């Protein structure tokens, strides 16, 4: 049960807080809320594959990088981009996720550093970005099945199939993170194994000279950067589940490290095999081309396996993304940013209202095209990441001695320098967006500035009940209380 907070007195940043009602508060880095102990926690192996599916899901979708820039730049991109973007984002997630080991993740970080208003804007943009991203997966799943079942190509059968698939995967999320995590492991192994076999049978056909082909005069930089960015972001999404993780101070950094190796390897080696084993025709390198390569090097059976792996990979990405989105809403409700009913849990420990809202968003957005979905979610995601970088640096400056179970081994200057390359990359991605995507995305951002005051007004009128949980971490305790108290 949530408790309304009485005024609190702020102690030293490294110590626990006590309210005037003598409620105990969790010290940073100690773990998640004791009231959640009755629900089974996520261990490291399922967590690795949840991160894998939040970020990647396998090499499906990287083919456009070869079409945009050729083999050399595609291979170099999936080695250099993780250094510029993925590693900094994963390191920041490890530090901040263990500093605030609770649901809500980046919403809590931004709220603690910049205040609850900006925390809400962060939550709105990142949730919307996640839901837009998740709208891809039922559609892509059916795209792989329509060759065998042509009726799924359009019309009412396709609409019904999207709804049924979304309902089935949503129910899986409702049944709990433990089930989702082990399903992610099974789907992950199934999705990666065909590329192991493809690598083995392709060895005699590989010509290393094909890897070094580049034509600087015919590079589509927009497609190239968007493909890299879309396939190598969302490392921070797992932070919204930190309260569900077993011993997050130890488990989260290790899981991010193992997942980083798995994701980069799962992109680079299939590209290495594919570009080296078949003659280059850049126009053929688009979504689904790996299945054609499988047929060329291994036969029809390998193509069928890769197609099946790609289809089921979309299921893994869907359940992982929905878990992150729904627990983010739960965390926001626990911090008084959303009505209290978002924080209610089912008997399986899952947030049913958050799941339903996320599923509804997926259904409503599934009419968008693939290119529009990728561009829109990248645009919104970029805004959210800028606020995360600001929050990370500000908390380093304001609370340098606060307990951080995992701390990136750099000082404040190093933290600022580490954020500069990914910030420059964000500005490039934003600049390459089309006018249509800019207008739509900025309109969605502006909605957040309207929704937050409306929620505040709703609470003041007592139309809906808001409350702040009694076991928040140190930094957000005062901000959350002030937000809640200002409504009372």
TrEMBL record:
Manganese in keyword set: no
GO MF, one example: polyamine transmembrane transporter activity
Keywords recorded for this protein, A-Z: Cell membrane, Membrane, Symport, Transmembrane, Transmembrane helix, Transport
Family of this protein: Belongs to the amino acid-polyamine-organocation (APC) superfamily. Polyamine:cation symporter (PHS) (TC 2.A.3.12) family.
Domain of life per record: Eukaryota
Gene Ontology CC annotation, any one: plasma membrane
UniProt-listed Gene3D superfamilies: Amino acid/polyamine transporter I (1.20.1740.10)
Membrane topology per record: Multi-pass membrane protein
Residue ranges crossing the lipid bilayer per the database entry: 42-62, 68-92, 104-121, 157-174, 180-203, 256-280, 353-370, 376-397, 409-431, 437-457
Localisation per UniProt entry: Cell membrane
Entry protein name: Amino acid permease/ SLC12A domain-containing protein
